[in-house]
């Protein structure tokens, strides 16, 4: 095969063409596999980036492939299954190969240096990830700490601990820490707090609260997010992601409504995140005062800022969706609080800036998949109920 090619003075033109073919073939295949996985689940985009960056050796000169021990590719539970899937997918496509080092430890590496030198997407990731060299220092430090189990091996006095905490651990989109590195960084932060308390004599009660929070908050958030993930009307989305779903509805109106809006009632159900562009289901003309439909599709876009967003809905007597959508988007509607039917969580669940909102969603605000909303004026007698509201999770 072409894997054995070495570039020296005797390399012929045919060999150059062969090598060019290897690069093109590998990089095209890498793009195809990337697109296929991201189409299946947008979360794969970040996972593939983080896995592939670990497989780039950062020498002084040209980039080369790096053997990555499988132990280095163990991640926190929510990401771990995705990481395993990426490795299997790319290995089946012969982009990655598995092996064992001299001590019998399993590793995985790119099939050819051409993949790390010629894949445009990976080269862009290398340029954009400013903390890649820091990762290369962190990984062996975390391994040494694990083997020694001594606080003196932590990074509590390392100036880069702040960078890791602010730019990596708390980042919604760029937390590349694996399971061991996460524990190492958290323990280092914990030790730093402990050192500070010793110096300033802060009371034991405060110290217990801080250390317990730092040690267990991440685990607690994963537990909460797992619980929310299982609910059909809760979805974890990336910023700006297109989200599809379906809902059943029953629309009822009374004789007086029909009398006020002759010869028929035209209705639109509008649902989405307030002040964002919503979805609109056109119920059409109602002649007999009742309409019932199942699995009506809708499509909304997740906001670009990290946060926890509630899907609300209302209905309007209009001839088309255009006006209700405009009124909703521009905040001209009074949208009832009780009309929650779903929750969209945007960003990394370990982003502690949205932690409080995730906790609130978990503890008291997960909406029922059945919700009824009535007309503001009871005399009009119009009612819409949604049930079976759910997101399509890829």
**Helical coverage, percent range:** 40-55%
First-last Cα distance: 38 Å
Broad structural category: alpha+beta
Assigned CATH class of the largest domain: Mainly Beta
Q: The CATH topology of the largest domain is what?
A: Immunoglobulin-like
Q: What is the helix tally? A: 12
Q: Strand-and-helix sequence, N→C?
A: HHEEEHEEHHHHHHEEHEEEEHEHEE
What would you say the CATH architecture of the largest domain is?
Sandwich
Number of domains: 3
Mean pLDDT: 81
Low-confidence stretches: 1-12, 375-380
Strand content: 15-25%
Q: How many beta-strand elements? A: 14
How many whole angstroms does the radius of gyration measure?
27 Å
Q: Within the largest sheet, what's the order of strands? A: 6-12-11-8-9
Shape: elongated
Biggest sheet features: 5 strands, mixed
Provide a descriptive summary of the structure in words.
By secondary structure, the chain is an alpha+beta fold. It contains twelve helices and 14 strands. The chain has helices at 13-40, 44-53, 77-92, 113-118, 120-128, 132-148, 161-169, 179-200, 204-229, 255-260, 322-329, 355-365, and strands at residues 56-57, 64-65, 68-69, 96-100, 106-110, 234-237, 242-253, 265-272, 279-286, 290-301, 307-316, 340-346, 371-374, 382-391. It has a five-stranded mixed sheet with strand order 6-12-11-8-9. A four-stranded antiparallel sheet has the order 10-7-14-13. The longest helix has 28 residues, at 13-40.
């Amino acid at each position: 095969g072409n894997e054995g090619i070495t570039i020296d003075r005797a390399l012929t033109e045919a060999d150059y063409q062969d090598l060019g073919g290897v690069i093109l073939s590998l990089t095209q295949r890498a793009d195809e596999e990337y697109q296929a996985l991201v189409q299946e689940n947008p979360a794969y985009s970040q996972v593939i980036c983080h896995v592939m960056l670990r497989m780039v050796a950062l020498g002084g000169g040209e980039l080369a492939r790096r053997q990555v021990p499988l132990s280095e590719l163990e991640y926190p539970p929510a990401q771990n299954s995705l990481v395993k899937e990426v490795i299997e997918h790319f290995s089946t496509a012969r982009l990655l190969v598995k092996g064992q080092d001299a001590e019998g430890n399993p590793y995985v590496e790119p099939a050819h240096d051409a993949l790390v030198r010629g894949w445009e997407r990976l080269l862009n990731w290398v340029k954009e990830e400013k903390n890649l060299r820091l990762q290369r220092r962190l990984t062996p430090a975390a391994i040494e700490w694990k083997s020694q189990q001594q606080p003196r091996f932590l990074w509590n006095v390392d100036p880069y601990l702040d960078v890791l905490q602010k730019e990596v651990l708390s980042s919604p989109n760029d937390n590349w820490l694996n399971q061991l590195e996460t524990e190492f960084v958290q323990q280092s932060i914990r030790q730093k707090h402990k050192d500070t308390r010793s110096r300033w004599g802060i009371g034991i009660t405060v110290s217990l609260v801080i250390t317990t929070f730092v040690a267990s908050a991440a685990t607690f958030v994963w537990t909460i997010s797992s619980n929310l993930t299982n609910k059909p009307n809760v979805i974890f989305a990336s910023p700006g992601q297109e989200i599809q779903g379906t809902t059943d509805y029953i629309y009822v109106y009374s004789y007086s409504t029909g009398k006020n809006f002759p010869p028929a009632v035209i209705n639109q159900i509008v649902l989405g995140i307030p002040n964002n562009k919503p979805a609109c289901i056109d119920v059409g003309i109602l002649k007999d005062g009742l309409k019932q439909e199942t699995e009506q599709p809708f499509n909304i876009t997740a906001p670009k800022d990290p946060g926890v967003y509630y899907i609300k809905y209302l209905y309007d007597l209009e001839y088309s969706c255009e006006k209700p959508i405009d009124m909703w988007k521009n905040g001209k509607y009074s949208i009832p609080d009780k009309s929650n039917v779903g929750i969209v969580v945007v960003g990394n669940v370990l982003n502690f800036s949205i932690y409080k909102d995730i906790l609130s969603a978990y503890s008291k605000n997960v909406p029922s998949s059945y919700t009824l909303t009535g007309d503001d004026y009871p005399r009009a007698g119009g009612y819409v109920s949604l049930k079976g509201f759910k997101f399509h999770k890829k």
